Amino acid sequence: xxxxxxxxxxxxxxxxxxxxxxxxxxxxxxxxxxxxxxxxxxxxxxxxxxxxxxxxxxxxxxxxxxxxxxxxxxxxxxxxxxxxxxxxxxxxxxxxxxxxxxxxxxxxxxxxxxxxxxxxxxxxxxxxxxxxxxxxxxxxxxxxxxxxxxxxxxxxxxxxxxxxxxxxxxxxxxxxxxxxxxxxxxxxxxxxxxxxxxxxxxxxxxxxxxxxxxxxxxxxxxxxxxxxxxxxxxxxxxxxxxxxxxxxxxxxxxxxxxxxxxxxxxxxxxxxxxxxxxxxxxxxxxxxxxxxxxxxxxxxxxxxxxxxxxxxxxxxxxxxxxxxxxxxxxxxxxxxxxxxxxxxxxxxxxxxxxxxxxxxxxxxxxxxxxxxxxxxxxxxxxxxxxxxxxxxxxxxxxxxxxxxx
Length: 405
What we know:
By secondary structure, the chain is α+β, with helices and mostly antiparallel strands. Helices cover 39% and strands 20% of the residues. The strands form eight sheets. The chain has a four-stranded mixed beta sheet with strand order 1-4-5-6. The radius of gyration is 23 Å and the shape is globular.
């Protein structure tokens, strides 16, 4: 992505905001892994979208027609291990020329915060998301605390709806990056498929290692998310990322993977079997039929909520045909199909977007129906990445065969 891409995104955000509110946003912070080591850094998608910066703890300020970055003070220990922040690189990438130290930046920012009633930012998530069972990055909470210490009466205006609206529609350069990520994934999976059919993998981890190499060899930066490689009955679990189980001769193999290219992810799933029985083939056929039905609904103007409802009903018919349920009520369908059909795709594998807004040309989605039958040890999912066009939908991963074997 060019400097103009990030400058353009900031300009569009301010246009959507249509206000003279100061805009203050923070990058993600580093997270402790153990003792004095950290997890690999992953930038906040919104911050990267506006700046192109991959450094932690940096603050972006846009106010009164000017913009500047505030960079954190680094201890001598951190500088010794991680180096100093490359100011020139920040300027070149983001197109923001003014870079201030933490002391200088807050000295400038403090009077402005004390004298306004509202500030635009990204609201901090809860410390712990119960539904997902995970802790969240504390950077936004830290920024909010610092702002509130300067002005306890200030109101924070949330920019997430504006950024969801922006990121939902991909620009041409973004589509090129996603297409490249998809192509890398497709070509890599073709290699894995051939080797799988030759019975060259003894366990799931061998597949993961091969994929990692193929992604990088083809120009990717690695995996866009933790790869899911599940043999046999493990495919009934939606997100098993501990890829260490053996692959039996009769095991089907589900692979939900995606390369990352220039910060954009692909997300494809295929299920293969060397010795598929009649039942496995019937379930696989039903999943493809559901995906074809879902694809037929996608076009400009489609509302994802209605799309998901229609696809769920069609899935219910397929589950009845397979003898898994007698009536297609929601609770019965969700027993064997417990996830949504589609999600937005982009910087994040589950990307920002507004499900209440109709789809428009340039929206990129993953389409991933699946049927999971724990009592039979069968789990099958098929996933492709598509872009909405003026005429309907284009399957970016159409060159990857969907065949079971």
